[in-house]
Amino acid sequence: MRRAQVEMIGLVFVVVIIVLGIILYMQFSKSKISTVPKDIQRSNSFLVALTETTIPACRESFSRVAQSCVLNEQTCEDPCGKLKETMQDTAKYGLAGSKYSIRVEDAGGTLFASVEQDCTKNAPAIIAAPKQPLPFGNGQTAYLVVTLCR
Amino acid sequence: MRGQLQSMEPIIIVIVLAIIAGLSLLFYVRISGGQQDEEIRAAHAQEDVATLGRIVNLPEFSCSRSATTNTYCIDKYKAQAFGNYTAKNTAAHLYYYGFFGAANVTLQVVENGALHQIPLYANLKNEYVTQTRTFFTVLDPLTGERQFAILIIEREQ
After folding, report:
1. What's the pTM?
2. Closest to B69 in 3D by CA, of B10, B132, B146
3. CA–CA dist B97, B95 (Å, integer)
4. Burial of A114 (0-12, 13-18, 19+ CB in 10 A)
5. HSE (CB half, 13 Å, CA atoms) of B51?
6. Residue B59 burial (C-beta neighbours within 10 Å; 0-12, 13-18, 19+)
7. DSSP character at residue A129
8. Could you report the per-residue pLDDT of B16-70, keeping only the tens digit for each?
9. Which of A5, A139, B42, B146 gives the lowest tally of CB atoms within 10 Å of its CB?
10. Half-sphere exposure of A18 (CA within 13 A, CB side)
11. ipTM, 2 decimals?
């Protein structure tokens, strides 16, 4: 091989390395690694606050009304509907500008109440918030789940 | 032509090396900058929870009748009174500087589907601020109801 040919091959290698570098850079710059801790804190505190919130129409906490909804008890009129209203009101102000899904479900995944904003159950989530257990005191437990979507 | 290429060779090599070095530097700055942002946000999140903990333990805010089984209990009317007091009283504003620091602290309460704003402490003139939000509940001692609330802390960027 002539020297000029070897140099050309070297140059091609360098160009390939540069292109690879640019591709890698663009790929990493797209990832939103900085939002995660903020979202963990946000979804956790949202879950805890929501379970403690009193639903005025029932004069009971969210977790107690969830129990009524799941066990079909009549502590107030339409407990599942009241849960949904409360989730809508709190998410409207608490999670404004985010894509979210809030669900009350049992251990088997049966859905009792839910609200969604551009975020379905199986959509790619920013952070899978731990489920907030809502124990009923009889061995049964329902779960409140908040999912924040991309 | 070949002669020209050979004479340009060192220059081309230097340019290529400079581009590689520039890209590496850009990559490094991007990654380390992202990590730094991440750390700042994590620190702010921790500071918010700490501020909420401090507020809850202040007699100026704590519930007089208890709901002690719940982690955080702030009396809504005490919070309103506190906000009015520090806004009008310069000495009180200065006194609580050590507590809240350079920040605007606001409480938003969701009541019957509407949002009520309760400013607790305002100490920022700069309009370029970062805002963090922490959720908890406040107690309305008249009805005994706990209302969904958002603690908003604004700091300078």
Report:
1. 0.73
2. B146
3. 6
4. middle
5. 30
6. exposed
7. P
8. 888 888 888 887 887 777 777 777 777 777 777 787 778 878 888 888 765 555 5
9. A139
10. 15
11. 0.71
How large is the average pLDDT for residues A89-110? 87
CB-CB neighbors (< 8 A) of A41 in chain B: 45, 48-49, 134
CB contact under 8 A, B24 and A89: no
Identity at A111, one-letter amino acid code: L
Using one digit for the tens of pLDDT, what is the confidence trace for A42-86?
788 888 889 989 999 899 999 999 999 988 888 888 899 999 999
Q: Do B134 and A90 touch (CB under 8 A)?
A: no
- Inter-axis angle of helices A62-71 and A36-52, nearest 10: 70
CA distance A148 to A126: 6
Cα A63 to Cα A66: distance, rounded to the nearest angstrom: 5
| pLDDT tens readout for residues B99-124 | 888 888 999 999 888 999 999 998 88
